[in-house]
């Protein structure tokens, strides 16, 4: 039996998304239908809406969500009706070459729902990141659901579904920050500030945040930054020099580029210590290019890493970080700037451009 609900759908590049009726099919054997409680407004959703991901319109937007399982397929064992879950877009298959090599964070065949959701006329929807959570309900694979305490602040823990996990994982998982190390984070948006929180969790004693906008620095300090640097008007080498000045002249053990443009990556590369690690978590434009002297790549040693989804494994990382939030050791609620209704997502996209919003979070009343 199908279900009709309201969902936010993008029909064409750069056009405002529209709240329309969508059809949720009966779940397949390992699919589940979930009632969405909250969904963060992520830059990735704006990228889908603007055609920066691909042109598989229409898109059902939204992916950074907390939900309650309301219906399950006949072979589902991972969750039960009534479970509160965080949705994820890395439901690892366990069978691809990455999984078999013991690197499931690079899984090439992650699970999604077995059936598409549709418009009322039968037009198939492309669910953003295989989730599509700007809706009253959505259809996902059972392994896209990670159980969480139903009493937790859904708006806060739901952010682990994407941006906050990307930033925390960039320092903890990809950067492998150790106690007593120094970390520099370039870019103080939501992902960058999550990287700051991750650096603090990892025991870094020097945490430097660099950004064009010094209005973000109070929040950075609240999350663990020990130093802040305004980079307006600075060249990449000057930014790197600022990092070296704050790390005894050596550079940081880990530099996280949470912006993803050639200038910030160059600054990250030269702002790290010898044998330090550079972590790229900001998503670059596909046409962006960088030129570095090969001798500098060779002579500086260390590691140049990319961080996809914070190199997370949802079943391992989401419960751990949600528990830290419950213990008061990880202030996930600090990332929630505003709580909005589903029909205000377009407004949130506009406010996002001003740089003052960490996360707008849609809250959907439960029946």
Automatic annotation (TrEMBL):
Keyword annotations for this protein?
Metal-binding, NAD, Oxidoreductase, Zinc
Tree of life domain: Bacteria
Q: Where is the Enoyl reductase (ER) domain?
A: 12-362
Provide GO CC annotations from the record: cytosol
Gene3D superfamilies listed in its UniProt record: Medium-chain alcohol dehydrogenases, catalytic domain, NAD(P)-binding Rossmann-like Domain
**For this protein, what is any one GO molecular function term?**
zinc ion binding
Residues crossing the lipid bilayer are none
GO annotation terms (biological process): formaldehyde catabolic process
Has the keyword Metal-binding been applied to this entry? yes
Per UniProt, the enzyme's principal EC class comes to oxidoreductase
Its needed co-factors are:
Zn(2+)
| UniProt EC number | 1.1.1.306
Family stated for the protein in its record: Belongs to the zinc-containing alcohol dehydrogenase family.
Q: Which NCBIfam families match?
A: mycoS_dep_FDH
Q: What is this protein called?
A: Mycothiol-dependent formaldehyde dehydrogenase
Identify the species of origin: Dermabacter vaginalis
Q: Taxonomic classification, please?
A: Bacteria, Bacillati, Actinomycetota, Actinomycetes, Micrococcales
